[in-house]
Design goal:
four-stranded mixed β-sheet, 2 helices, 29% strand, binds copper (II) ion
Length: 137
């Protein structure tokens, strides 16, 4: 009895160890393959999305430039105020306006993400002849 127990315990330990090893190897085999796939696609999607999704519009010499701007849905438009005179970026649609930067002083910027397709007209509340158009497709 004693002898067989002494022999069984190491065998059981070896069996347990090898089962554990197989699990570790299996886990190591299975987990890296999905991980690089996800890792490879996620940064690519993120970088292309980031690259495609920001457009800059300057407010300069009492005008928005470039104008009009055509962008894909989900693009963030960053308006940067370069004039010494304050301006706004205010939607011509909606009450209250669909979007409104509020007062922008020189060197301030304000951004808006255009999440739905459509044609968005905007103007400056201080100089209503200043108008611009964002076309979201
Ligand atoms: Cu203005």
């Amino acid at each position: 009895m004693n002898i067989s127990l002494v022999r069984l315990v190491p065998i059981a330990a070896i069996v347990a160890l090898s089962v554990a090893l197989v699990r570790v190897v299996a886990a190591a085999d299975s987990s890296p393959s999905p991980a690089p796939a996800a890792g490879a696609s996620a940064p690519a999607a993120a970088s292309s999305a980031a690259a495609a999704k920001t457009v800059n519009v300057k407010i300069e010499n009492f005008a928005y430039s470039p104008d009009p701007v055509t962008i894909p849905v989900g693009t963030k438009v960053v308006f940067t105020e370069e004039d010494s005179t304050a301006h706004t970026v205010t939607s011509s649609d909606g009450t209250p306006p669909l979007f409104d930067s509020g007062n922008l002083d020189q060197h301030q910027s304000w951004s808006h993400i255009f999440a739905k397709a459509g044609t968005y007209k905007y103007f400056c509340q201080y100089h209503t002849y200043m108008t611009g158009t964002i076309v979201v497709k």
